[in-house]
Write a structure and sequence with these properties.
The protein starts with 33 loop residues before the first helix and ends in a 34-residue tail after the last strand. It is α+β, with helices and mostly antiparallel strands. Helix content is 18%, strand content 27%. Among the domains are: 113 residues, TolA/TonB C-terminal domain (2-Layer Sandwich), CATH 3.30.2420.10; 110 residues, TolA/TonB C-terminal domain (2-Layer Sandwich), CATH 3.30.2420. The protein is elongated and about 75 Å long. Strands 1, 2, 3, 4, 5 and 6 form a 6-stranded antiparallel beta sheet that branches.
């Protein structure tokens, strides 16, 4: 439903769109043979992680955050026959500004200048991580984040790097299996046993991380013959001791359908509150070439809006202004994102909702119409729950209590 942020100047088509979250559809996966699976796993184990080291500068000098999340190790969407360790140290960069409130805005990847571009998913995750940062409340312009990316084979990366990648990048399928194998100790034989009941931390407690931020905690445990847990240990963490303690308690209260096994792994996350969108530009420059009356909005039906997954996972909202033309027969063309906040990752889904939209034919063409696309999330947005399941669904246990009247843990 349009809110007050949709009150635009008359030069805007008065259209505001909000996200309605829906469950993802899952298609059938073709069956694979053991030989296929072994080849896929072998390829995944040749994966090269790129470990980031960040530096920040603005035109008027260096810049340091008040609070920020560490950038996750990333990867190129390929494997290498010859591992390029020490041979291909890459650099990626993002330009941005700092608002008077200390928030990074206009985050966009740098193209050219000798910088590499990350893959689509890694690029969006980097933008989302950086968008959650907090800086001193002083406006700054012409700022740049530079990431120095050192290649490290998964097979020899240090455990802290592998755990961070496992927790933050959340690899799937063969790559997840390869990462879990890399984290195994001698004698570990746990392979995601199906649960009988699973407890989780309280994701919505008051002392959560700051808005747009997320904490994570990776945990390892063993199982007794009766499926209860033992030898629970945090093996990696973003540094939130409260979450770490709750994760230990949640695993201790969980029961699995398995005999005695060793070395089970999982990651838990806790999001901060949603980070609201920056103020929408209510005073855009006049466009003397625009030919788009207010009645046009009743003829335009937008396509389906999808939220950038990395920003949805962190609860970060945004907006974009999209300009386009519409022919008399209804065809949409010349789609351009003219402004986007807080990060460029919102551009592609905003343009897609216009490109896939429909316009009712008319006797007059519409020229350089502008619509604001608003990306909003529900007030309370839980993070994705850890995959503790095998083939069976997990049952939720009541919150663990430490005896306090209001504290669930």
């Amino acid at each position: 439903m349009p809110g007050p942020e949709c009150a635009m100047r008359q030069s805007f088509v008065p259209l505001c769109l909000s996200l309605l979250l829906a469950g993802q559809a899952h298609g059938q996966v073709p069956a694979t043979t053991p030989t296929d699976e072994a080849a896929t796993l072998a390829a995944a184990e040749r994966t090269v992680l790129f470990v980031p080291e960040a530096s920040l500068n603005c035109a008027d000098g260096p810049l340091s955050p008040v609070a920020s999340d560490a950038f996750s190790p990333t990867l190129w969407a390929q494997t290498f026959a010859t591992l390029p360790v020490g041979q291909r140290i890459e650099r990626a960069a993002y330009d941005f500004s700092i608002s008077p409130e200390g928030r990074p805005l206009s985050i966009r990847p740098v193209t050219g200048e000798g910088f590499s571009r990350l893959g689509v998913a890694a690029d969006a995750q980097t933008q989302a991580t950086f968008a959650s940062s907090v800086f001193p409340a002083v406006p700054r312009q012409d700022c740049r984040l530079t990431l120095r990316l050192t290649p490290t084979p998964l097979s020899s990366a240090d455990p802290a790097t592998v755990v961070h990648f496992y927790a933050d990048a959340r690899p799937r399928d063969a790559l997840r299996s390869a990462v879990e194998r890399r984290l195994r100790r001698p004698g570990d034989d746990c392979d995601r046993p199906p649960p009988r009941s699973v407890a989780y931390p309280d994701y919505l407690r008051a002392d959560r991380p700051r808005p747009g931020s997320r904490s994570w905690s990776a945990v390892r445990w063993d199982l007794r013959d009766d499926g209860t847990t033992t030898n629970i240990a945090i093996v990696g963490s973003s540094g939130d001791p409260v979450l770490d303690d709750e994760v230990r308690q949640a695993v201790a209260a969980s029961v699995f359908r398995s005999g005695s096994v060793r070395g089970c792994l999982a990651t838990f996350w806790r999001n901060g509150p949603n980070l609201p969108m920056p103020p929408v530009n209510r005073d855009p420059q006049d466009d003397p070439l625009e030919r788009c009356d207010e009645a046009f909005s009743s003829r335009f039906t937008p396509g389906r809006l999808t939220y950038p997954p990395a920003f949805e996972a962190r609860g970060i909202e945004g907006w974009a202004r999209v300009r386009f033309d519409a022919a008399t027969w209804g065809e949409i063309g010349n789609v351009t994102v003219v402004e986007v906040q807080p990060a460029a990752a919102f551009s592609e889904p905003a343009a897609r909702i216009v490109t896939t939209g429909r316009v009712t034919p008319s006797f007059e063409a519409a020229i350089r119409c502008v619509v604001p696309i608003i990306f909003q999330l529900p007030d309370e947005h839980e993070p994705e729950r850890p995959d503790l399941t095998g083939a069976l669904p997990a049952a939720m246990l009541p919150p663990i209590s430490n005896g306090g009247p209001d504290a669930p843990f």
